[in-house]
Design goal:
The protein is an alpha/beta fold. The protein is built from four helices and six strands.
């Protein structure tokens, strides 16, 4: 449920907790359009429950191509590329941020916020 994301990410959120090493990184908040471009977000369908498809590392959103039409009969399907894969913005890759899973998780939260999602199933 993206309600979890709403409570943990605000428009003023600018610090990434990068794990036990204590390293942190600041970044200016991105506009919704910038988030959509950075992660090459693709939306299929509307006015249905939201299914946010998250591919594994080493893959991109194309892995869902054959399944998306079937899922779109019952869901609004949202696909994206992790930064550094697929058609994401390669310039957005930052080794410090993406050295830990939290950097990628923060991107997912930003996608939910950019789309105004309050409820979604993350697969």
């Amino acid at each position: 449920m993206c309600s979890f994301f709403d409570s943990t990410l605000t428009s003023n959120s600018a610090i990434y907790d990068l794990g036990p090493s204590g390293a942190a990184m600041s970044e200016l908040p991105l506009s919704a359009g910038a988030v959509m471009r950075r992660n090459n977000v693709r939306i299929t369908g509307q006015d249905k429950p939201v299914l946010l498809l998250c591919n594994g590392f080493g893959y991109n959103q194309r892995m869902w191509d054959y399944l998306t039409p079937l899922l779109a009969t019952q869901y609004q399907v949202i696909r994206f590329d992790h930064v550094g894969s697929g058609e994401s913005d390669r310039q957005a890759y930052d080794a410090t941020k993406y050295n830990h899973l939290q950097g990628y998780a923060h991107d997912v939260m930003e996608i939910c916020q950019a789309l105004g999602l309050h409820e979604a199933v993350l697969l």
